[in-house]
Amino acid sequence: MAHDNKVMRSINLAGEGLCVDVFQRPDGSFGFDEFRRDPEDPRGWYPVGFYSALSFDSFDAALAGATPKIAWLKDAL
Questions:
Q1: For residues 56 and 27, is the Cβ–Cβ distance under 8 A?
Q2: Pairing verdict, β 30-36 and 46-47
Q3: Residue 10 forms beta bridges with which residues?
C-alpha cells in the first residue's frame, strides 16, 4: 500500500498478529488489505492479502468487499 493512502480504520484479530486496513487513496477511492506481523520479526507489518489494488467508491463498500475475502474479519467486526 502506498504511503500516501490514509488508513480510515484498522481492525485487528485478537492477538494482534493479523489486521485489515481500510484506506482512502489520494484520488478519493477506497481499498483494503490484510497484514500480518510476527513477534520475532522486527520488520513489522507486511501484506498477506494482496487486495490493495481493488477499488471502491466508499469506506462502507470497501469494508463490505473485505468481509467475504478475509475469513476472520466478520467475527472481528
A1: no
A2: antiparallel
A3: 21
Q: What is the spatial distance between Cα 13 and Cα 36, in angstroms, rounded to a whole number?
A: 10
Whole-structure pTM value: 0.89
The grid cell for 21 is 486496513
Q: Using DSSP, state whether 60 is helix, strand or coil.
A: helix
Q: Helix, strand or coil for residue 59?
A: helix
- Report in angstroms the alpha-carbon separations of 52 from 10, 41, 69, 71: 14, 23, 12, 17
Q: Say which amino acid occupies 59.
A: F
Binned at pLDDT 50, 70 and 90, residue 50 comes out as very high
32 phi/psi in degrees, rounded to 5: -150, 160
Q: Which of the 8 DSSP states describes residue 13?
A: P
Q: Which residues are within 8 A (CB) of 71 and not within 5 positions of it... i.e. 6 or more apart?
A: none
